[in-house]
Amino acid sequence: MLAVDFFFAGMGGGMLVLAGMIELFIGEARTSFLGNLLGPVFMGVGCGFLVLELGRPFQSWRVFMNPKAILTAGAWIMSLAMVAGLAYAAFGIDPRWFGSESFRWQQDQYPVRKLLSVVCVITGLVVATYPGVLLARHKGRPFWVGPGLIPLFLLSSLATGSAAHFLSGFLIAPEALSPVWASLPSLAGGLLFFQLVLWLGYIYVKRTGATAAEAASAQKWIDGEHAGSFRYGFLFAGTLLPLILLLQPLPALKAAGAVLVLLGGVVMRCLVVHSGRDRTWLPGEQKYRGRLPHGDEAFLKASWNR
Amino acid sequence: MARYAMVLDTRRCVGCHSCTVACKVHNELPVDMIYNCVTTVGPTGVYPDLHMTHLPLLCMHCATSPCVDTCPTCASQQREDGVVFVDDKKCVGCQACIMACPYGARVMNHETGAVQKCDFCKDRVDAGLNPHCVNTCHQKARIFGDLDDETSEVHRLVHGEKAVRLLEELNTEPHAFYIY
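^ inputs. structure came back:
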């Protein structure tokens, strides 16, 4: 669930950043309305998954209560990003869908539109980077600790965001036709390439890292329990294959590549979250915990009243 | 104000798990929840020079506690006397503190949906009594007291013996000291 939350929130954040940047530096209505709408919606979906994972989901409002906690800051910024993203997407609503000539709130709102774009870029960047910051602070999780995950999550969020924007354009084309939408696959490809280089560097640094626990956690990605998913799920299906497909001239192949980029984003987050289960173990702790009952043992189910 | 700490003398611990049982019974913990476990390291060495150490583990009640810092609902709190505890009413079960704790001292109660942990039996401590695990230990391997009180046994052991703290390099300033 945490990995799915990170995926949707990161992709939504990346979509907001792209929509805002294109609005500010290239021009209005260059991205699909559907993409602009789906950005904040995906963030909401991510939040929904996170709430479902809580032990007491009906008290989820409490996560807004501690201003000193990074989770609280993340919750507030994600809420702001969703509101700003939805407000920005509202400018793309076609009045003809509602049988109207025009909407008053869409006219002469240049400053508001630009201000919302700026808010979308800033909050989207924070949301896209936030999982990396959150995980990097965990001192007792050898694979996460350190700033390396921050650019990896940012790059992945931007790559999945650009892929999602490109796919959205297939369903509802951007209002103003421009080469921007057609360039999104190339942008996603470039981001994937940088992500690939960074991931290989990250694994190498962790493998030769500061502590034995870090090295052991990275070794699992090379020839341990995560190696298969990392090689075939993330590196091949989620990075190399989409890199090739995104550079093809046929739009259908580009779309297939974009779908694989999303798949790679999910696999990456699942692997990272799963790797965090390895704590810095205390002496004898692994052996002790390995012997504890899991709850499905026969002696726990037996009736002792006979 | 007192600053409570626990000293764990591994030279005395025989690995009987009495403290684990006493804690589970008095805190009425479900079968899959343990606040303080006793791990065993070894036997190491070559006969006849064999060594085996039993290591009682519990919440370290860190001075710089990452669990308190990370809690988004202020459910994880630290008292002025250093005791770290969870206010059950405020906990939403996000498990951020479980991820943040380098010592694995926190456990999720799947029945209540909240996170729970050792709180040094704070209600007993407030009444001037020792935690249950300390009372139960027949080897006197667990010593509890005020670290700031120069007359306390805890102060004497921490400053007089070769006391170490687990994962000290993480700078969480744990207040459980081990003598070996």
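Chain B touches chain A at residues 31-32, 34, 37-41, 53, 55, 57, 66, 69-75, 90-96, 99-104, 108-110, 112-115, 166-167, 170-172 (CB under 8 Å). Chain B is about 20% helix and 25% strand.
thumbs up if we can close this ticket
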